[in-house]
Amino acid sequence: MSIGTHETKIHGRLDFPYIVYTGKIPEFLHNYPLHWHEEFEIIYIEHGTGCISVQSRPYICTAGDVVLIPPQSVHDIRQTENKSMRYFNILFKFSLLEENENSVCYKKYFQPYTGDSQLSSFHLPKDSEMNRKIAPHIQELIAHRKEKYTTNELMIKSHLYAVLFEINSLLIPMTTQGKSMHSSIARLKPVLRYIQEEYQKEITVKEVAELSNLSESHFMKSFKNLTGISLIKYVNSVRLENAERLLKNTDKSVSEICEECGFHYFSYFIRAFKSTYGCTPGELRKKAAEAPVEKTSATAGKADFAHNASCCSSALP
Fold it and tell me: What pLDDT shows up at residue 14?
């Protein structure tokens, strides 16, 4: 289990848990906060540059790169150096390929990802040997993303099997350091869930430290080591992400959004927002209104940090 927001959104259909999303940084959102989900995720960078972190490891990604994110692995996507990035997310559950968890195939090829094994590398640069092996399969899945999945089940499965067959060679036993990191992340998981659910309220170090059974000083050190930012900055990032979503997808006033997202002082909210997004809330709303209308998962419910993207037949070209 991992630190971060547990994304419970259903990706694809219950009887065919597979979907392809299109993402843009910063056009859809500037950043996607730390989160995890039960699906295996493959991210393919179409163009641009951005930072993707997996299990607290940051990777600067460029066009053609692939990032592999096993189930329950914490990850986020961020803008870097004011650059933009367009990418595709392919998400699927192992049950799509093997429903019987007691089968030899499941235990040999799927279970290790959530057990005591880890990938030797989450990031596969464009010129790497493994990238060259799996990129053609990923590109085929992306090329068919607009078609109804009910007409291409075998094609989809065949490419996913091919990808997993190749990357199986990257699995290695989890190191002592990896196990320690895994344990530390799991301890802080309740904290991130609490912040996701209670970001509208005042959140103190004392109360979240108690959730992780750590002293306040130990908690603050552990939190920053694992997330790369302080508790205050993380809470504010969650609040600002929700504010951005509300500005783009509701008619609520800026002052209403300020209060709803947990900011007690309007002037502070404006300063924090402008510092993060380079514009005021009102300016961002105006830009969003003038931009072409695109169906994205950003229109989902409160605090849904699912990938803001078009999907299935609504995918971007």
Answer: 65
